[in-house]
Automatic annotation (TrEMBL):
It is a multi-pass membrane protein. Keywords: Cell membrane, Membrane, Transmembrane, Transmembrane helix, Transport. The chain crosses the membrane at residues 12-29, 102-124, 131-149, 182-204, 246-269, 289-312. This is ABC transporter permease. Residues 96-312 form the ABC transmembrane type-1 domain. The lineage of its organism: Bacteria, Pseudomonadati, Pseudomonadota, Alphaproteobacteria, Acetobacterales. It comes from Candidatus Kirkpatrickella diaphorinae.
Amino acid sequence: MSFVLRRFAHGIAVLAGISVVMFTVFFATPGTDPAARLAGKGASPTLLAEVRHQYGFDRPLPQQYARMMYGIFIQRRLTSYVHHGQNVVAQVMAAAPVTFSLVGLAAVMTALGCLTLGMGAALLGHRAGAGLIAFLCLLMVATPVFWLGEIVNMVTQGAGHDHWLFRWVPGLGYTPLTQNPVKWLACLILPAGTLSLAFTGLYARMLRTELLTAMRSAPIRTAWAKGAGPFRVWTAHALRLSLSGVIALFGMDFAQLAGGGALLVEVVFALPGIGHLAFEALNSFDLPLLMAVVMYAALSIVVTQALIDILLAKLDPRLRSAP
C-alpha cells in the first residue's frame, strides 16, 4: 500500500510542477498582457475588463494560478474567448472518450499482434520464418502513420467503398459506444489498426529479443531441470521474465497517445478526440484550450505511469523498494 501511495504522491508532484511551468509560459510571461492575448485583436475595453476579472489577472500571480487550477480541476470550467465564451474543460471532457476508445482499441490490437509475432519469432529461433517476421516488423515500424491513414482512406472511402470487402466501412467520424456499439467498433477499427501497426512491429521485435535472452537465464535452466514442459517454460517463465521492459515502454507510449499523441490519426480519420482538439487550439492559438489540453495530457500520463508501476511491481516485487 505504501508503494501505491508513494507512486500517486510522486505523480501529483509531477502534475503540480507541469501546471506551474505551463501557467508561467502561457499567462505570466513578463512584458505581455495575457488579457489582450486571450481577448484577441481589436478587443473592446469592456471585453478586456471582463477577461481580467474572469481570469483574475488583476490579482497576484499565486492567486491567478490557484484560480486557474480551481477552474480546471474543481469547477471544471475555463472560458475561451477565441471560441466566443465556450467552456474548454467541457470540450476536453467531450473529446476524451473518443481518444480513449481509439487508443484502447489500438492497445489491444498491439498487444495481440506483439504476442503473436514476438512469440512466433522467438519460437522459430534462427529459422527462415523468423527472418520473414523480422522483415515484416521492420516494415511496420518504417511505415509512416499519416501516409498509411491516407492510403486506407483512399481505398475504403473512395472507389473501393463499393467493393464487398469495404461496404461495411462507415464514413469518416465517430459514433459513441453508448449510441451504437457496432458502429462504434466499425468507425474505430481502421484508425486503431493504423495507429497500432508501428507499435506492433516495434514491440514484437523487442519481445523476441527479451524472450531469447530470458531463455538463456538461470531461472529458465532451473525450470528445465525441475522438469517443466516447453509450453510452461515459454509462457509461465520466459514470458513473465520478458514482459517488464515491454510493459514499461508500452505504458509510456500509450499514455502519451491518450494525452493527444494520436493527433495525426485523429485528423486523418476526422475523429473529434484530444489530438484533433489540440490541433485546433494550436491553429487558433487558443491559450485556455491549450492549457486544458496540456493539463489533461499530463494527468493521463501521470495516472497511467502510476498504474504501470503498480503492475510492474506485481510482476517483480523487487521494484517495490525502488525510489
